[in-house]
Design goal:
CATH topology of the largest domain in chain A: Rossmann fold
Number of domains of chain B: 4
Largest sheet of chain B: 6 strands, parallel
Strand content of chain A: 15-25%
Helix content of chain B: 40-55%
Distance between the termini of chain A: 20 Å
Number of strands of chain B: 18
Strand content of chain B: 5-15%
Shape of chain A: globular
CATH architecture of the largest domain in chain A: 3-Layer(aba) Sandwich
Oligomer: heterodimer
Largest sheet of chain A: 8 strands, mixed
Radius of gyration of chain A: 22 Å
Number of strands of chain A: 13
Radius of gyration of chain B: 28 Å
Number of helices of chain A: 16
Number of domains of chain A: 2
Largest interface: A-B, 32 and 42 residues
Order of helices and strands of chain A: HEHHEHEHHEHEHHEHEHEHEHEHEHEEH
CATH class of the largest domain in chain A: Alpha Beta
């Protein structure tokens, strides 16, 4: 291929999952951009996330995937298939891109994402070995599936497996999302502008079983604000979290009202990113906003329980903390310990253990993200280098077979 | 030149016969009056046909409310002063055929005299003459057809429009070849349960893919609730139980969405469920095989179903419409000749089941009052059925101690009796003075080739003649009629045979289901209608796909040509090529659509 053809060869990264996965794609975007610095890298994502994705510096063009429209077509086609209506679908796809991409990297192990890649690009690299009807997984997709099924001793972060899926290594330093100036609703304009520690409390969760009970939040915020400090709290979340936010505020002392802002359901994703950027800490169980906070450079502290695992989806970057529960439904919560960590981080190594919880801190090295326990005594050996080597060899072997 | 001459001259260029007929016809049906805007409006039978303020604005609002699918022929019922046609035509593609039904020339004469018609008349076809002739003209304009009604004008010729619609439905039924997926929702128990079974069997025999959501399996649990002594608890729990069955039905429908959900009376589908089904674009129909005066829950459900089929005509139909039903049609009861049939009985069976006079049924008030008067005559009388507790005068003739009679026994009694009494139930004394609908028993007896003496019903003459079914008009006349018919065995046999022939020719459940689907098909040309016409069969779809989507057309040709193919089947066929299969861009689009389709409908 001549150099000018290579320049013209456009790459499409496909990430059709939710907010958390989109933000966790920043490392692979950074690595792909570094690897193919002379090529244009576009991103296909859910239409609802496109405004945020447009802030990703390494991405050229954000292509919006309109799931609502696809659902409407599917509904109209089901039970009354009319070939003529495929024209509408064809027109929609033509509007996404006039010429096919040279390569689509597919990050989701979902037929839709793989089909989207095949529809929009001449070559697809993703979870399956051979095309849309193939169920045989690539080595990295197999590894991901095995981790999902058995958890085991995995220490490779999901963001870094995305890199593996795309044939690149994790970026040498965690990527940072630099935000332009974004106007906030007037009553939120003062967030982060005064002295003291600003804490974004992520009140909801993507799934109900991953929600922190309202009473726990009330206790946690009361503990934080009860001290004679200049801490302030901003409740963040989606529109569906507004009821929870109101219930939390109902449980707090009226004396705390002046140090608490409720931003739930009132911000666009770029505005949410701005609010998180203005805070010193983001705390919660909803990994989407936690990843976003980590991406904009804010310290994140997560409470991981239910299906959430620190090693796979902890906040990417340096200096983030995760309280990992031993139980799917925690019996007690590390309220005082976690508040103390924010107020007196220097005492963390002296903290007494909290029953049913372990505390992990994020680090970054050549293999990407890694979480170490606060006492730096991980019983599990770090096998990332060996896994990367093994899977790379398997990938090369399969490429040779093809 | 006045407007009449101008209109007729222009019309003559397209339909000279109609123009000539209009010159010969008088007007006077419509009273032409100026509206507030100065335009002409019209009244008839004391009602405004167009707005008394602004007929054009009103017609435009009407036209905006009409839906249309590409490729359809629009057939308009309702003439008036044609403002609505004038408003409708510009909203349709130039190539869309528009047929105006003219059931009465006098109205069109009035319309021609009232104002000069515009250019729209050059694209309208005029269907006039007898109902049959109009039906043929509509059919020749092209299929599929979509009927639209301008109600104020259409109401003047409701009978004519019904007749024309019947012709169209008959034509649709004759063409029907496609296979529908139909979910039939039956009751937990009761009289509509066997009718559900017959309807399912009939639909299957018509070649449709039928799934019976049979709630009779829940009957034992439901009856347990009836044992609760506290009526408040009983009613609350029965209501909850029905709600749960409604949710079960929704879950079943979600698993395999049908083209049509057909409920029989007492089907446990509550209004919120029906509304949810409509939001999810399920088409629903209810065959309410009950007396609407006795069971009145239809008032709560009227707006929930897309189509209602009832066994009574007005005022039943008007009452349902008043309660919010959009489409209500008359569909009388029927028989299933595979169940209700003549039997060869042994001597012993004739002895056991036979009598001069018999009655099979429950002990309603009118029967309790009438039957004692039939005792003490020189005929034998056997009474079969349950719910006769307390009817001590009838103990001597009550068979099997008042046990419930199963279908097999019923057929034997029908076949073994000389005169089968068929008195419709009523809560009063004597015969029901407002009796209109004809009960299933009438059709079942006729289908068995059994002679019956029935109380007079206002809807009977359209279904059976006096030479097929004998009727009696008062309870006082009943003993005399029994005596008369017992003395005329040959005529009884002849009448019963004719009644059976009538059932076989017109009154089976197959006929009813055929009529029901034809009516739904005509009213829903783009959905049920297109399936019934066979537009969804592989061969037809392949032809439709040929021009632009050759790969999809080629896949469609791998199916048997008459097989109905939907997105699901098409995607499965593409997937069957296996992991190494070659996929075209069209194939990928189909697979993507199927991925979205495969998500369970959010019904539960």
């Amino acid at each position: 291929m001549r150099h000018d053809e290579d320049v013209a060869a456009r790459i499409l990264l496909i990430q059709l999952a939710r907010l958390g996965d989109l933000v966790q794609s920043l490392p692979v975007i950074a690595s792909l951009a570094a690897q193919y610095s002379h090529r244009s890298l576009d991103l296909l994502c859910a239409a609802s996330l496109a405004d945020l994705a447009r802030l990703f510096q390494k991405v050229g063009h954000v292509v919006k995937w309109n799931g609502v429209q696809w659902h409407a077509w599917a509904e109209s086609f089901a039970g009354e298939f009319q070939p003529s209506r495929l024209r509408e679908v064809e027109q929609y796809l033509a509007e996404l891109t006039t010429d096919p991409y040279a390569m689509a990297y597919v990050l989701n192990h979902h037929p839709r994402a793989i089909l989207a890649g095949t529809l929009l690009a001449t070559e697809v690299q993703g979870p399956t070995l051979r095309g849309s009807l193939d169920e045989e997984l690539t080595p990295w997709a197999s590894y991901l599936r095995q981790v999902a099924q058995t958890r085991g001793s995995n220490r490779i972060h999901l963001s870094d497996t995305f890199c593996g899926l795309c044939g690149v290594t994790p970026p040498p330093v965690p990527p940072v999302l630099r935000l332009p100036s974004i106007v906030l609703p007037s009553d939120l304009a003062e967030v982060g502008m005064s002295a003291g520690q600003w804490i974004a409390v992520v009140v909801g969760a993507g799934d109900a079983d991953r929600s922190i009970p309202i009473a726990v939040w009330t206790d946690w915020i009361s503990t934080l604000l009860a001290h004679d400090s200049s801490c302030a709290v901003v409740l963040v979340g989606a529109r569906r979290d507004q009821t929870t936010a109101v219930a939390i505020q109902d449980g707090l002392s009226p004396m705390m009202a002046g140090r608490l802002w409720d931003a739930t359901g009132r911000t666009t994703l770029p505005q949410l990113a701005t609010v998180l950027k203005r805070c010193h800490w983001a705390v919660g169980a909803d990994t989407g906003p936690l990843h976003l906070a980590a991406a904009v450079g804010t310290s994140a502290m997560g409470f991981y329980f239910s299906r959430a695992r620190v090693h796979e989806t902890g906040p990417y970057g340096l200096g983030h903390w995760v309280w990992q529960s031993d139980h799917a439904v925690p019996e007690i919560w590390p309220i005082h310990a976690s508040v103390k960590l924010i107020r007196e981080p220097e005492t963390v190594s002296r903290q007494a253990p909290v029953s049913g919880w372990s505390l992990w801190q994020s680090h970054h090295d050549e293999w990407g993200a890694i979480f170490h326990p606060v006492d730096d005594n991980d019983a599990q050996e770090d096998q990332r280098a060996a896994v990367w080597q093994q899977i790379s060899e398997q990938s090369l072997s399969q490429q040779g077979l093809q | 030149m006045n407007s009449f001459e101008a209109n007729i001259n222009r019309l003559a260029q397209r339909d000279s016969a109609l123009a000539a007929a209009l010159r010969q016809s008088g007007g006077g049906t419509l009273e032409i009056l100026p509206a507030r805007t100065g335009l002409m409006s019209a009244r008839a039978q004391g009602r405004w046909i167009h707005s008394a303020y602004d007929p054009i604005k009103e017609a435009q609002a009407w036209a905006e409310g009409q839906s249309y699918q590409e490729g359809e022929t629009i057939v308009v019922f309702g003439v008036g002063l044609l403002y609505h046609i004038e408003a409708l035509c510009p909203r349709l593609p130039r190539t869309t055929p528009v047929v105006l039904v003219v059931p009465n020339l006098s109205v069109l004469v009035d319309a021609a005299m009232a104002r000069t018609w515009g250019d729209w008349m050059d694209r309208v076809s005029w269907a006039w003459g007898t109902a049959e002739a109009i039906g043929e003209q509509i059919a020749s304009a092209g299929h599929p057809i979509r009927l639209v009604t301008y109600a104020p004008a259409s109401a003047l010729h409701a009978d004519s429009h019904r007749a024309i619609e019947t012709v169209l439905q008959r034509n649709a039924a004759a063409q029907a070849g496609g296979q529908l997926r139909i979910a039939v929702v039956g009751p937990i128990y009761g009289g509509s349960l066997p009718i559900t079974r017959y309807a399912v069997s009939a639909l299957e025999s018509l070649g449709h893919d039928v799934r019976w959501l049979d709630h009779s399996v829940h009957a034992a649990s439901y009856h347990q609730l009836e044992l609760l002594k506290n009526s408040q608890h009983r009613l609350a729990l029965q209501s909850k139980y029905a709600e749960m069955l409604s949710r079960i039905t929704m879950a079943q429908l979600a698993e395999d969405p049908p083209d049509l959900v057909l409920s029989l009376a007492q089907a446990p589908l509550i209004l919120p469920a029906l509304e949810h089904l409509r939001r999810k674009k399920f088409l629903t129909a209810m065959w309410f095989v009950e007396n609407y005066r006795h069971l009145t829950y239809w008032q709560q459900l009227a707006a929930g179903y897309d189509f209602w089929f009832v066994i009574q005509q007005d005022p039943c139909i008007a009452a349902l419409k008043q309660a919010g039903a959009k489409d209500v049609r008359y569909l009388p009861m029927a028989a299933d000749p595979s169940v209700h049939r003549p039997l060869e009985l042994s001597e012993a069976e004739r002895e056991e089941y036979g009598s001069d006079v018999s009655f099979v049924g429950a002990g309603y008030a009118n029967r309790r009052e009438i039957f004692p008067r039939l005792l003490g005559h020189d005929w034998t009388f056997k009474l079969w059925g349950n719910e006769w507790d307390g009817a001590t005068a009838l103990t001597s003739i009550l068979q099997r101690n008042g046990a419930r009679i199963d279908t097999d026994t019923c057929q034997k009694v029908f076949n073994a009796s000389a005169v089968n009494l068929n008195l419709h139930s009523w809560a009063g004394a004597g015969l029901d003075p407002d009796g209109d609908f004809v009960n299933p028993r009438t059709f079942e007896l006729a289908s068995c080739g059994a002679f019956q003496l029935t109380d007079r019903r206002s809807l009977m003459p359209d279904l059976f003649t006096a030479s097929e079914v004998a009727t009696v008009s008062s309870s006082e006349a009943l003993p005399g009629e029994i005596t008369r018919w017992l003395c005329e065995p040959e005529q009884r046999v002849a009448m019963a045979a004719q009644a059976r022939q009538r059932v076989l020719a017109e009154h089976t459940y197959v006929h009813r289901m055929h009529a029901l689907l034809s009516q739904v098909g005509v009213a829903s040309p783009d959905r049920i209608g297109s399936i019934l016409r066979g537009d969804r069969q592989a061969a037809a779809l392949a032809v439709a796909a040929d021009e632009s989507f050759s790969s999809v057309a080629s896949t469609l040709r791998t199916f048997p040509s008459a097989q109905r193919v939907e997105l699901k089947q098409l995607a499965a066929q593409i997937r069957s090529r296996g992991p190494m299969g070659t996929l075209s861009r069209e194939d990928l689009m189909v697979l993507m659509l199927d991925e979205y389709r495969s998500e369970t409908k959010d019904l539960v």
